[in-house]
Amino acid sequence: LDTRQREVETVRIGDRLNFRIEIPEDNFAQAPYGIFARSCVAMAKDARTSFKIIDDDGCPTDPTIFPGFTADGNALQSTYEAFRFTESYGVIFQCNVKYCLGPCEPAVCEWNMESFESLGRRRRRRAVEGNETKEADDDMNISQEILVLDFGDEKREFFKADPSTDFAKDKTVTIIEPCPTKTSVLALAVTCALMILLYISTLFCYYMKKWMQPHKIVA
């Protein structure tokens, strides 16, 4: 989501985005479910390069790149700046999401000698009806892909290779030459007149020089 909470598929490097995981409203209405997310990975579209953004305990591996999740109603949310891998425009996010009955207990994480909470850990099992324990068994992997562009990418080879953005095919390009202006016509006429005058002057000088030369008298 962008800053206006709109779903986006194409963004630019550095755009501020919200990574949001929501419980379907029908499930939330049936039981007071909570959710937690862990083992989240960002990977290049070709899957050759990947980067774990949330570890197996539910803590962010580098909060400066991708902070931990916070609760927002029945959803989890993390605000980050769009990034990409050098060899790929597409970035795929994958997360392991699990339901728990009631609010999930946040994970206690540490970064740069500081502790903070991230909603990425399941709630501790609680006793229900004696010694029995009860927890949600729903476990799923979710994924989402976004296209991350840099400034000027619209003019580069990516768009030339993408058929959906090939604006050159099946189109006729007409080149219209501009009409000459009055000033340009006048300048051209003056130039031609000067060239003709120079040519006449050259011929005149040549014949005058030849005429003034003394003629040889043959005895």
UniProtKB/TrEMBL annotation:
Keyword Transmembrane helix (UniProt): yes
Protein name, UniProt field: ZP domain-containing protein
Gene Ontology BP, a term: anatomical structure morphogenesis
Gene3D superfamilies for the chain: Zona pellucida, ZP-C domain (2.60.40.4100)
Transmembrane segments: 185-207
Keywords in alphabetical order: Membrane, Transmembrane, Transmembrane helix
Domain of life of the source: Eukaryota
Domain ZP, chain residue ranges per copy: 1-116
